[in-house]
């Protein structure tokens, strides 16, 4: 299972911002309860990090109306050896 970051931007227009939040509430998606929102800081995006079997499974939790603008990023962690190998790669 892989970990994905889902980023969903939306308009800074107050009405549209509230409509997106309403859409999340009405969708019943567990995305809503685990989402982080940047609206109070003027960054009109929501973020969600969770484990999924595939990118396609991650897409399915996004309300259909918002899927076109969502970014789905597979996350990875690197240990010390991974970083050293990567740094060595950069020196070639």
Describe the protein in words.
With 92 residues, this protein is α+β, with helices and mostly antiparallel strands. It contains 4 helices and 4 strands. The chain has helices spanning 14-27, 30-34, 55-60, 80-90; strands spanning 2-9, 36-37, 45-52, 71-75. Strands 2-3-1-4 form a 4-stranded antiparallel β-sheet. Strand 2 (36-37) and strand 3 (45-52) form a beta hairpin. The mean pLDDT is 86.
Distance between the termini: 33 Å
Give the strand line-up of the largest sheet. 2-3-1-4
Secondary-structure-based class equals alpha+beta
Proportion in β-strands: 25-35%
Regions with little confidence, pLDDT below 50 for 5+ residues: none
The portion of residues assigned to helices is 25-40%
Average pLDDT rating = 86
Largest beta-sheet characterization: 4 strands, antiparallel
Tell the overall outline: elongated
Write down the oligomeric state: single chain
What is the number of beta strands? 4
Count of individual helical segments: 4
Radius of gyration: 16 Å
How are helices and strands ordered from N to C?
A: EHHEEHEH
Can you tag this structure with a few keywords?
92 residues, alpha+beta, 4 helices, elongated
Summarize the structure.
With 92 residues, the chain is an alpha+beta fold. It contains four helices and four strands. The two termini are 33 Å apart.
Break the fold down into its secondary structure elements and pairings:
Elements: E1 2-9, H1 14-27, H2 30-34, E2 36-37, E3 45-52, H3 55-60, E4 71-75, H4 80-90
Antiparallel strand pairs: 1-3, 1-4, 2-3
């Amino acid at each position: 299972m892989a970990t994905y970051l889902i980023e969903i931007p939306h308009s800074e227009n107050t009405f549209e911002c509230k409509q997106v939040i309403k859409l999340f509430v009405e969708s019943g998606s567990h995305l809503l309860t685990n989402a982080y929102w940047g609206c109070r800081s003027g960054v009109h995006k929501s973020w969600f990090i969770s484990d999924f079997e595939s990118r396609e499974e991650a897409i399915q939790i996004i309300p259909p109306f918002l899927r076109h603008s969502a970014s789905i990023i597979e996350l990875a962690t690197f240990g010390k050896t991974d970083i050293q190998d990567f740094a060595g790669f950069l020196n070639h």
